[in-house]
Amino acid sequence: MTNYINLFPVILVVLGAMVSIASEPFVKDENKHKFLPWVAAFFVVIAMASCVLLSPDTLFNLFAMDPIRRLLTAAVLLCALLGISGIQWTLGHEKHKGGEPYGLMLLATAGALLMVQAIDYLALFVAMELTSFPVYALVGLRRRNTNSCEGVFKYFVSGAIFSAIFLYGVAMIYGATGTTSFFSECILGREPIFAIGVLMVLFGVLFKAGAAPVHYWVADVYTGAAVAVTGFMAAVVKVGALAALGSIWLSVLVTKAGTAPAWNLAEPVTISSQTESLGVMVLIMALVSMALGAFSGLAQKSIRRILAYSAVMNAGFLLLGVLLPDYIGSGSVQLGPMFYFLITYAVASAGALTGVAYLAGKDDKNETLDDLQGAGRKRPFVALAVAVCLASLAGLPPVAGFLAKFVLFTGAFSAGMTWIAATGFAFSLVAAAYYLRIAYVLFAPAKADCECECQCKCADNAVFSYMLKFTVAVAAVSLVVVGIFPSLALL
Fold first, then answer.
1. CA–CA separation, 416 vs 85, rounded Å?
2. Which percentage of the chain shows pLDDT scores above 70?
3. Are 172 and 196 in contact (CB under 8 A)?
4. pLDDT at 452
5. 198 near 252, Cβ under 8 Å?
6. Strands across the sheet with 325-326, in order?
7. CB 291 within 8 A of CB 427
């Protein structure tokens, strides 16, 4: 029975999606965004509560659960709750007549939860597609917006191409091993086929994670989507993709070492014949992602584009984490620090962008640095929570992001990658400049000509902000608590 209990969060989220979609036609247009978000949020909260029932186990060698996956499941659900509250504010504020986005968001969440648990390539592929297709629709929610149409077109076409690459890689792995399980033994003489298949699979997953060199879609898609949808993508989709990346990485090492399957993401793995060129390739991708994200973000004025390049840069930090504590030197890998960083990044980025969605006004027209100047003085509660999330992204103590970066960089330093750690720290300081610039702008003196404009327009929409204010505050408090008590998430 334990096996099926581990799927409870997924089942509850899917059930919530079905209830939301089925009840949508029976709710009046003016009440859709007052009723449906709370239905969706109810099922997400119940799914979060069910996480206490989860225990380490596998299900038919397709899905697995362990302590890290349980934390990642809780993080995905919290970020989904942030996404629901943000989209409620956005759609209610704009008087959007449809209520389907709540069901779509829950279906994408279910896909991400399955990506976290997947230990089979076909199961992962199904989970990836379940995540992707609802997100395509969410990105294109504003059908009359040029940026939205451009973003969804680029995302859909690119996503289809990399899904095909991923699936072709799975076919090659099956040809080399005779199975689609992550933990499979390569048939003698078919090692090159296996290596090419794994490389194609990894590029398919890295596309979802937004890491260089397959990051080109991130800025345009994040800009085209609503700010609340951007926050959802930056957190939920990235957690699913990087959890899958960690699982695949461990499986490749186990295959090379010829040891027993290591489906527990916290389990240390050591191989005596590590491929140094593979580690160098990961380091190059990590450094390119860091550099592009850090310096490209400095030139942006749009909050969405700033945090889009932030996503690219943080994907680089997370790639560095797959080599710790010392893959290149002793062949040892333990992914706990990487996933601690991932959890803090996901909650911080989702919290920050959900708060910005509240401050940006109708159609997200006021989401640039100039437009948001002084917005924090009018709505200090949400702005303060956003500032805490930005502080975590910047790596300032005592928020969780500080310890996440500290563990990551000290781990790289201990592994002998001194110049890599120093370079990553320098890029982190560059990125901190644009995080802190956003926080500064929020609380700077407001421009005289727009001092009261947004507050008057939003006065009648307070009913749509209750859940948003609560969830953004929960995200900020969670980051502070995990920063002070890291044992809650550091494995």
1. 44
2. 94
3. yes
4. 43
5. yes
6. 269-270, 332-333, 325-326
7. yes
Structurally, how many domains does the chain consist of?
Answer: 1
Tell me what pLDDT residue 473 has. 94
Range of the domain at 164: 2-488
CA atoms within 13 A on the CB side of 98: 11
pLDDT band at 386 (very low <50, low <70, confident <90, very high): very high
Q: Which residue is it, tokens 């500080």? A: 402
Round to whole Å and give the CA distance between 236 and 357. Answer: 17
Who's near 435: CB < 8 A, 6+ residues apart?
Answer: 310, 390, 391, 393, 394
- Please name the residues in contact with 477: beta carbons below 8 A apart, sequence gap of 6 or more: none
**Intra-chain end-to-end CA distance of the chain, in Å:** 26
- Rounded to an integer, what distance in angstroms lies between the CA atom of residue 87 and that of residue 381? 19
* Cis check: omega of the bond before 445, within 30 degrees of 0: no
Overall residue count recorded for the chain in this entry: 491
Instruction: Give the global pTM.
Output: 0.92
DSSP run (H or E) holding 206: helix 191-209
Phi-psi sector, 287: left (phi>0), alpha (psi -120 to 50), beta? alpha
Q: Is 485 exposed, middle or buried (0-12, 13-18, 19+ CB in 10 A)?
A: exposed
Give the tens place of pLDDT for each residue, 444-460. Answer: 887 765 544 444 444 44
Please give the structure tokens belonging to residue 413: 């330093």
* CB 91, CB 83: distance < 8 Å: no
Task: For residue 126, give every residue at least 6 positions away whose Cβ sits within 8 Å of its Cβ, in sequence order, or none.
Answer: 114
